[in-house]
Specification:
With 1006 residues, the protein is mostly helical. The protein is built from 44 helices and ten strands.
Amino acid sequence: MTAGALARRGFGDGARAARLMQDCGLAPGHHAGVVDELGAAPDADQALLGLSRLLDCCAEPGDLLEALTADPDLRARLVKVLGASTALTDHLVRHPGDWRELRGADAARAPGPSELRAGMLHIVGADPNSDPAAPVAARNTDGPDVRAHALRVAYHRRVLRLAGRDLTGAADLETVGAELADLAASVLEAALAIARADDPEQAALCRLAVIGMGKCGGRELNYVSDVDVVFVAEPADGVEDEQAAMRAASRLAAEMMRLPSETASEGTLWQVDAALRPEGKNGPLVRGLSGHVAYYQRWAKTWEFQALLKARPIAGDPDLGAAYAAEIEPMVWRAAGRDNFVDDVQSMRRRVVAHIPPAESEREIKLSRGGLRDIEFSVQLLQLVHGRADPALRSGNTLAALEALSQKGYVGRDDAAGLADAYRFLRRVEHLLQLSRLRRTHLLPDPDSPDGSEQLRRLGRALGYAANPVTEFMAAWRRVAGDVRRLHEKLFYRPLLHAVARLPEGEARLTPEQAGERLSALGFADPAGALRHLDTLTSGVSRRAAIQRTLMPVMLGWFADAPDPDTGLLAFRQVSEALGGTPWYLRLLRDDIRVAERMAWVLGTSRYVTELLLRAPEAVGVLADDAELVQRSTRALEAEADAALRRHGTAENAVAAVRALRRRELLRTALADLLEVSPVESVGDALTAITAVTVEAALRTARARVADQRGEEPQTRLCVVAMGRFGGGELSYASDADVMFVHEPLPGAATAAATESAIAIVRELRRLLEMPAYDPPLLLDADLRPEGRSGAMVRTLDSYAAYYRRWSSTWESQALLRAAPIAGDMDLGARFIELVDPLRYPEGGVGDSQVREIRKLKARMEAERLPRGADPATHTKLGRGGLSDVEWVAQLLQLRHGHEVPGLRTTGTIEALHAAVGAGLLDPEDGATLETSWRLAARVRGAVMLVRGKPSDSIPKSLRDQAILAGALGYRDDDEDEGAVGRMVQDYRQVTRRARTVMERVFYDD
């Protein structure tokens, strides 16, 4: 046969193939069937090369060629193995006679578990019938462990026979997985028999049972996968020393694990992994039955019960294994009733996804979204939820459990069939990937590399894609991954709607009680209330109800991921009802799923956002585009405020329009904050900017209103000076808008009349900003004015000068560090700043007596102003290492050195710290510690307001509120040892404790 003809038959290098065939003695005429079979192999060139190697090693190569010619079943099995697995080809080359394993009736027959066990025990010289609980291998007397070698050879011989059936379609996925699991169990039984033979004295002390976990326990093992196990032991009859029995069992278990895992001439079979035992790798390898029971009763987390769902005795003492199963199984099916059930299950899935390297996420068929783990998690979660009351669902096998869920009505028939098909496809791909070199992998080859492209071609051909194997396979894989994601959402969430709405026939039907159980498992504290919301949203024949029925199966998952699912679903219902049948809203939710996902998150996280959104539900449109969430420029805000004032005739309506603008910007800022579109410093900038624009617009309106009432323009100029965090550009959602009012009579105007006008303007300004309205009020706090609440609300510039010249105290100089004109006559504001600069940046700095006064004031504030019962370690404002600590350090440096360091003449805390570091007044590491603490405290304080919808300076004491706060701050229950709340509080305490140490050293150091 010519090289061209061979190339057309599927060989990549026709000339090389022709030479190899000639060397092998393959005559195209006499061996046409063999040549055709080789051309149809997953990799024709690899299959031909493997056959050539095998013939070279055979004692009678002619027998093999004649057998291949005469036996089409042998031909199909051998050629497909050679074309799919270089590792099994290597086995055949080492053991040329094993090609006969693929011939005859035995090669087509699936062996049972007992046959496999008996065969592996026989290989190591153990009698499977002498002592079923503890068979013992023959003693090794021939130097290197021939028993272990023989066991490995026998194992690969069995895998060869199974692969022949698998690759020719004679064995389905369920059969392959079950046989591999039974084969692994048989190897472990034989390895344990070897361990007993090598240490009979230890073996006599104990009974040992091996519990299969994971895919081995579920009888759905891969060709190469870790074999997960747990060991349970008891003293042998008549042995009273329990500790000695446990030590003996541990030695036997360790030796048993070593044999399949060690590298030898036949390669490593697979790793035996006992990490799923109680306490994981930190716990003892072997425990007694009572020790297992006590651990799972007291300490186990939900994910551990999820892992136990597949637990099955596979080797060792069968009676002890059965006793273990009888004790543990009831606890597994009570796990869904645990308080932390949802958090544990969700965090376990998030951990899996988070550990995927970014470069591999698009090629990961097991762990990525739409992969095998999504299917397994979906099925296991449904089993744990409904298996409490329905024993029919209690199977450790994924496909068997999925079939049971479908038969009992928990999953729609079509959905179950679709998910089962996807699972079979993905597991088939995984098996083919592992068969190639008998290595553990679930990562697709890189299509951009030459070798990867060839591997994908081989994979595609093995799956039956002939025309364009790579393109067809990749398209099929992406389609399956998309189907898995869709079905994952649908099979878990959509049946909930059937409890409250009309769904098409064939959908899964849940009773209200079953729907309530599932909602509880998702984390809804009030399942009955959630069902009522679903009823309202999805019932009826309107277009809105139809769209909501499409959306809710997806959104319920997002609500479940949010910190407060119940509040989120209620808020979504309220927003949807407020917008009614608004066409753009329904269209937006339907066409831009990102908006729906973001809505679920923010509504299930923030009461503050919910309240703002309910005031103007149409603002939901900003969720569609990150650019809409970015802070707007002050100039743009001023232009919009001007336009709002011009549109309305009355002062009340004009300022109401400006307050609506502020409400919209508050919402924009909060959304950007929650969705991590902007950092914490942007929050302060944005809130300060919109507050200043609002005050300026309201001040102009108030001045015009007073002028209209009095029939003349007020005879004074007025400036609003921001103080505190307002002046520092550091406003938070809960901050007061601290201000002072300064005015100056116009030339020729009487001071008394001018002051009366200024007071009238300020009174009107505050009234307009605080009047009852649909939008949040803006409260102006003038308590930092001279003489505090006892002093005049408004003073002239000259009055301020006289006061500060005679009466000013150190605390007022400190307060003036944050003074910044923000509204009204800015020329007057500039002259006010000129007036106070010598007070806040005194020549030569503040003296020792003033420093002592500042320190005493700080100590008194900590003692007197911290609310009763507040924890100083978690109070973000006045607590140890909180905002106040950092700000007082910065302000003392400003008072001492502002006269000589221009950079310190700033109203911002972080800017002042940077200037102090730059001037050598503060160690860079200390500066970084203080800045980190200030940013964290500011972020936590803002998040508390976002979560609770009302201001608070402390981390909440309620565990529920703490959990929501942790979620809002980006913490997830991804750590097995410590939850999100614990890590949040620990992080806060650590950061602020370091800042407190720096503060005490810097603030009190002379």
